[in-house]
Amino acid sequence: MGKALFSTIYLLILALSFACKNSQKDPVKKPNVLLIFTDQQNVNMMSAAGNPYLQTPAMDNLVSKGVMFTQSYCTSPVCAPARSSIISGKMPHETGVEWNGDEMREDILNAGDIFRNAGYKTIWAGKWHLPESYPQRAASKQKEIRGFDLLPFWNPENKTWMLGAETDPPLTEAVVNFLKDHDKEQPFFLAVSYHNPHDICFYARKDGWFAEGDSLLEIRYYGFEYRLPDVIGTHPDQVENLPPFPSNFAIDPNEPEFIQQKRAFHNEYGLETKLANQEFTEKEWRGYYYAYCRLTEMVDIEIGKLLKALEDYGFDKNTIIVFTSDHGDGAASHKWAAKLSLYEESSKIPLIISWNNKIQAGKTDNSHLVSQIDILPTLCDYAGINSSAQFTGKSFRPIIENENADWRSYLVVELADFKPDSLRKGRMIRSADYKYNVYSLGMNNEQFFDLKNDPGETLNLINDSTYQDEIYRHKMQLKEWISQSNDTFGY
């Protein structure tokens, strides 16, 4: 018995020793992170979101493998401020980027800093816009991005760098080659920032135009030319086949003066809406929406190639994927073109997260209010990174794993639409069923919408006595937010 007991103990010790050595040699592998985002894509621009006027199989594939949030918002409906929030987890008034052209505060850690410090290879591929759109462009003054290696993807001597139709395909090719050659032993944080469907801006600027009969839409810019039907291949080319007007196409005659001003004159931002309101026929408004759908399909094709490469080179099993956009687009609702609006179409963005066998697949979250400031803390949470960075946002992992987990009751979106007049600002506060907008200047400077019963924001209830208690509650919440976040908005 003594020898048998001794032998058993000895074998157990050997087994434990072997297990410990194996665990040291083969630690839990850190997940890769792939952040994909487009430019100017609103939350409804996916067939998975129920839009019948376009087909986005790559985005839909991500939805089928992960969680899609439908109540997801940008922090500001303009490129640079929103992008500063995606990479920092902070609001634009905190990052120092309230307008395009602003530089981010140097004391704020970005996603590249955080993941590089955690042992990741961090790569930025594509559009940056903080402040330079493309640091690799020869004419750019900013040549580096702190915390990231820049992935070369196009000739820096090219003069335009302005159309996603030009930049997105070579960007995909460069990212595919990176994945092909990357050492699988080192985890990566890879941000792939596409340009489209931002090309829709050129339609409103009359760089795109109608031609009934043979050609629905062409876009020309600095000598580059393409026809959208030719690029996509199978979509209708006749005016009678255009999508119908959105149900909220009309403009509220009592719209706040702040918004009306953007329809009436051109300033640094907002040229598209001004031109569209002054020059578009009804057919051109429908064509605007048609073109927006086609441009979204074009970038979906690139995303499909990227996801295929992820599988081909064996990264799909251990890569957290987040898909989103920097801000939305008016998409002809309220006769609004482009961004710089607190209406839902410009302020809501797609947001999908997936991770093979780690995050529930095929789930749609229609209730929780999520923001771009939540993306980075969520990625840190899933990757097991305890950063010293102080996030304003918070990880939405708890509400993915338990829909009844504690979460925020409201979120805020900022608007700063004209840098030379820094007093021109607005704020949105969104709760479960309602939305309150307030603008710093002009007559009738408030809006209140019952989104549960009026998702198209067609009826401003600010003066409706039935809603005064809710309006007061939202005003108090906004004051609370301004105080807690040291917001600069004068209210």
| Strand composition percent | 15-25%
- Quantity of strands, as a count: 17
Write down the overall mean pLDDT.
89
Helix content: 25-40%
Task: Report the oligomer.
Answer: single chain
Per the principal axes of the C-alpha atoms, what is the gross shape?
Answer: globular
What does it look like?
The protein is α/β, with parallel strands linked by helices and 491 residues long. It has a domain at 32-202 and 284-397: Alkaline Phosphatase, subunit A (3-Layer(aba) Sandwich), CATH 3.40.720. It is 34% helix and 16% strand. The chain is built from 15 helices and 17 strands. The protein has helices at 2-25, 57-65, 79-88, 92-95, 111-117, 164-181, 200-204, 228-232, 257-264, 271-279, 282-312, 344-347, 375-383, 397-401, 468-485; strands at 32-38, 66-69, 72-73, 121-126, 149-150, 188-193, 208-211, 215-221, 224-227, 319-325, 351-354, 363-365, 370-371, 411-416, 425-430, 434-439, 446-450. An 8-stranded mixed beta sheet has the order 5-4-6-1-10-11-2-12, sandwiched between helices. A 4-stranded antiparallel beta sheet has the order 14-15-16-17, covered by helices on one side. A 3-stranded antiparallel beta sheet has the order 7-8-9. A hairpin with a 3-residue loop joins strand 7 (208-211) and strand 8. Helix 6 (164-181) runs parallel beside helix 11.
